[in-house]
Design brief:
single chain; 929 residues; alpha+beta; six-stranded mixed sheet; 18 helices; 48 strands; globular
Length: 929
């Protein structure tokens, strides 16, 4: 290809003409680029093209709940906290504030701060043990889509021509585990895919609130998410605009590395480009390896220039929509002032967001709200005097802790504070030497006992803070141990330890290095495979000290929760839902000392707090609330504002109530509020108020609707208490009869109301019949059945005050023939999916196909493969996988997929056909007659 000649200066090229359509401008610019320039644009760090006046461009500025990693910026509550407000207007305002701050940082450093922002995260929160739980919005996909759309619209802005930023949805698809996240495959039956996973992504794409998508690290049904055909075949069909697809960091290398899915880099990169990936986030700023792999793929015929052009065109389209190539005077965001970052308006918004995200989980004995008449308050707990940053938080410009907020209200003389953590010494066993911290902060052995405050963050992860200098013990890059960090921090947390009990002593294991504290003969301390035993002595019992403080107070407030960088974060799932043992002990001791104990939880995820729910009079929860958390908490504690938050996730009694973390089939496993049949600790949608509400006059605009119709649901909500209050009225439906297993209840709408005492509000919500449908596996399409639906309104998914019924006139799913795709099963056991096939995991695994019409067919062709170690069989049985009549048995020899024909025993009527596998690793693609 020859280099296109630049136009004379007097004639601006069409790509710089704002009056032309974006597509036309992108095509013009694409035609002017050389082959090398095109390929270079497919890396995260896109170089400038001086001859065309193109500046450098990079994808990926983190903006989950504030601008991250770029210095001080307004820090709003974590994403799950924003969602807990159930306020799309608030969330949109937060998104707009974050988008404006991104623009300000970009103005200061155009090359270093890109306008393609990597937010929001729309993975439905199906399992609270997921390490990145804090990044998502809700376990309900529809609510996730509503909140993500609001945040995305805020980030993208309201200008009809220009994007404020280019929001990117994360992480496509079925990504809720950090355990082996790059090599595990999420098993998604068709209904789970279409009813649970895809809707959360569709809403913000379809509405224009997001213009880009990032695939996830994991595989889905055996194929890496970065190579999913769903990117082009489904996701991009939701909008007429170009959707940019950016890889996750270092995920392209996994395709031929950890995942071993492709034989080499060029093959992997070619497959990714063809699947729809446009930008490769690989090797940091070094684009050379990416360019080399793509050029080799072109040379080997694995890619065509048409493939490259399609990807580059989408890159250019986003840059055009950001206004990069237009006259500066047309930029609606050019006049944003540098002092907009953390400006008073954003601080006020941060406080309002934190306030609206606080959930009152339990309220008895009228302990809350507190009044200024309270003479003395004890504020205790490891989170009472600190605000914690998570990995995707911005740098806090300041912090208002829970303690600060209460002191600001009452004054220092009426508040007594105790951190409530144990203070310990560590003596080297069989010696008189102790661990101590010198003036240089280095850990060493000495005769004087060094004292450390011991923080229990759960999951056997502890942090040690030196009393001498107030800093946490950490490992440096060269392996030295020193107390020189403010707390657990960074991508690689090097400030946590495990205590291994051994015959009255403890071995101290450094979690990041997996090595033990070792003291050599000269007293030097290092991390080694060989462990030195220590005697741990508690010199101050933190729980007892806190209990003594609580006993002197009128009310005790315990502030507990998690550290967002320990035991549940990116790269690390939780094993249980339990509170850290030391925190649980603290709560019990404080309550024993003062019955008026209020538990305030600040955490990235739900905890199993059954004891607290049973014994304490009041419990509040919020996600980590950002810089204004303490003031917001005080506003709620003292009743200036009603607790307005509602849970977007089920809180369970125990991890025993959950399926395996890696099992993504929420339907079969009865997971999430949609299918869970037990009684949760706190249900989805739960949140109490300081006042009471009455629901009444539930009516439908029609008793029945057609499959393409909609119904208006109206009811009233009255504040029956003597205080102003905030209510989130929620609408759920349930299909009463169906061919398939249906959710027990499903959120269809909500309305947030602020009501004065005695005030009554009319609520109207609309439900479309199409939204009541589901994915019909027999015909591989969406379907609205003829059925009666319960329509329910109330305060949560379990507190439903009024119910009526609606008849939907849809269709009846007909029976099907023996022409069956393997993935069109209704039920299964011992089966996983791999692309468009199923694979047996164990002998006697089976698939069930309901409602198969048999008409005395004489033969069936089964397309199957055998990846096991010996020949196997597939049996077709009727109505029962173990004892049902055998229709046929076919032998599946070792080897790749091949059609195998077997004769059929005579059978007629509508029956359930089971495919039963005699061994593991047998692959089934289809049955045909």
């Amino acid at each position: 290809m020859s280099t296109p000649a630049p136009l004379p200066r007097s004639a601006p090229p069409p790509f710089r003409d704002p009056a032309r359509p974006t597509g036309e401008r992108a095509d013009d610019l694409l035609a002017r680029l050389t082959p090398d320039e095109k390929v270079a644009l497919l890396h995260q760090y896109q170089p400038p093209v001086p001859r065309l006046g193109l500046d450098s461009f990079r994808t990926g500025t983190e903006a989950l709940h504030g601008v991250a990693w770029l210095g001080p910026a307004t820090v709003f509550p974590q994403a799950i906290g924003l969602a807990t407000s159930w306020s799309p207007d608030l969330v949109r305002a937060v998104g707009a504030a974050v988008g404006d701050e991104v623009r300000v940082f970009h103005q200061k450093d155009p090359a270093g701060v890109g306008l393609n922002v990597w937010a929001p995260v729309v993975n439905p929160l199906r399992d609270p043990r997921w390490g990145r739980n804090e990044e998502g919005y809700a376990e309900d996909p529809w609510l996730t889509g509503v909140i993500a759309t609001a945040y995305g619209h805020g980030l993208a802005g309201d200008d009809p021509s220009y994007l404020r930023t280019a929001p990117t949805l994360k992480h496509f698809l079925a990504y809720n585990n950090e355990t082996d996240r790059c090599t595990t495959s999420s098993n998604l039956p068709p209904r789970v895919l279409h009813e649970y996973e895809l809707p959360a992504f569709r809403a913000p794409i379809e509405s224009g609130a997001a213009v880009a998508v990032m695939p996830s690290y994991n595989l889905v049904n055996g194929r890496p998410a970065h190579l999913s055909p769903l990117i082009n075949d489904v996701l991009r069909t939701w909008t007429g605009d170009d959707v940019l697809v950016v890889s996750d960091a270092y995920a392209p290398g996994n395709l031929f590395g950890l995942q071993q899915y492709s034989p080499d880099g060029p093959t992997a990169y070619a497959a990714a480009v063809k699947a729809g990936v446009d930008s490769f986030t690989q090797d940091d700023t070094n684009s050379a390896p990416t360019i080399d792999r793509i050029r080799e793929a072109l040379d080997r015929g694995l890619l065509t220039w048409a493939d490259i052009d399609s990807a580059v065109r989408r890159v250019l389209a986003i840059r055009l929509r950001l206004g990069e190539f237009d006259p500066p005077e047309l930029d609606p965001y050019r006049e944003l002032e540098p002092d907009l970052v953390n400006c008073p308006a954003h601080r006020e918004l941060a406080q309002d967001a934190a306030r609206q995200a606080i959930v009152l989980l339990k309220h008895e004995c009228q302990v809350l709200p507190l009044t200024d008449a309270v003479q003395r308050i004890a504020v205790v707990g490891p989170l009472a005097g600190a605000v914690r940053e998570d990995w995707y938080a911005g740098t806090l410009p300041y912090q208002v802790t829970a303690l600060d907020g209460i002191v600001e209200r009452l004054g220092r003389d009426r508040v007594e504070y105790c951190e409530g953590v144990d203070r310990i010494t560590l003596r080297i066993a069989d010696s008189s030497s102790y661990l101590t911290v010198g003036a240089d902060a280095v850990l060493r052995a000495g005769r004087e006992p060094g004292e450390f405050d011991l923080f229990d963050w759960g999951g056997d992860a502890f942090a040690l803070r030196s009393v001498r200098n107030g800093q946490h013990l950490s490992m440096s890059d060269d392996g030295e141990l020193a107390a020189d960090q403010c707390g657990p921090n960074g991508w690689e947390v090097k400030q946590t330890f495990r205590f291994v009990q051994l015959a009255g002593t403890v071995l101290i294991q450094h979690l990041h290095s997996d090595r033990f504290l070792h003291v050599d003969a000269e007293g030097a301390i290092s991390l080694a495979e060989q462990a030195t035993p220590f005697v741990l002595d508690v010199v101050v019992d933190g729980a007892a000290q806190a209990a003594a403080v609580a006993a002197r107070a009128d009310v005790a407030i315990v502030v507990a929760g998690n550290h967002p960088l320990v035991n549940g974060r990116e790269t690390e799932d939780r094993d249980s839902l339990d509170l850290p043992a030391a925190q649980d002990r603290l709560i019990r001791r404080v309550h024993a000392a003062n019955a008026c104990t209020v538990l305030v939880l600040s955490s990235s995820y739900p905890f199993a707090i059954g004891w607290a729910q049973q014994h304490l009079p009041a419990i509040l929860w919020s996600a980590h609330g950002g810089q204004e958390y303490g003031r917001a908490l005080a506003d709620v504690l003292f009743g200036d504002h009603d607790p307005a938050g509602r849970l977007t996730q089920t809180w369970y009694d125990s991890a025993a109530d959950l399926p395996d973390l890696l099992d993504y089939d929420i339907i079969t496993t009865d997971a999430t509020y949609l299918y869970y049949r037990g009684t949760p600790l706190y249900p989805f949608g739960h949140g109490l108020s300081y006042t009471t509400f009455r629901y009444g006059d539930l009516q439908l605009s029609a008793p029945s609707i057609a499959s393409d119709g909609e119904v208006r649901v109206t009811f009233t909500v009255t504040n029956t208490g003597d205080r102003p209050g905030t209510e989130v009225a929620q609408l759920y439906t349930r299909q009463q009869r169906s061919r398939v297993k249906q959710p027990l209840r499903q959120l269809r709408g909500f309305r947030r109301l602020s009501l004065a005492p005695g005030e009554c509000a009319d609520v109207e919500l609309t439900v479309a019949a199409a939204d009541l449908g589901f994915w019909d596996v027999t015909r591989d399409r969406h379907c609205v059945e003829s059925a009666r639906h319960s329509v329910m309104v109330g305060r949560s998914s379990s507190d439903l005050r009024l119910t009526t019924t609606l008849d939907v006139h849809g269709e009846r799913i007909p029976s099907r023939t023996l022409e069956l795709a393997a993935t069109s099963f209704d039920e299964y056991c011992g089966i996983t999916l791999s692309d468009e096939t199923t694979v047996s995991l164990e002998p006697q695994a089976w698939l069930a196909f309901h409602d198969v019409q048999l008409d005395s067919e004489t033969a069936v062709t089964i397309t199957a493969a055998n990846h096991g170690t010996r020949p196997a069989t597939i049996e077709l049985r009727l109505d029962d996988p173990l004892h049902g009549e055998v229709l046929t048995t076919v032998q599946v020899e070792l080897g790749p997929r091949t059609p195998i024909t077997g004769g059929l025993a005579p059978a007629t009527g509508v029956r359930t056909v089971y495919a039963v596998f005699s061994a593991a690793d047998v692959v089934l693609e289809s049955l045909t007659v």
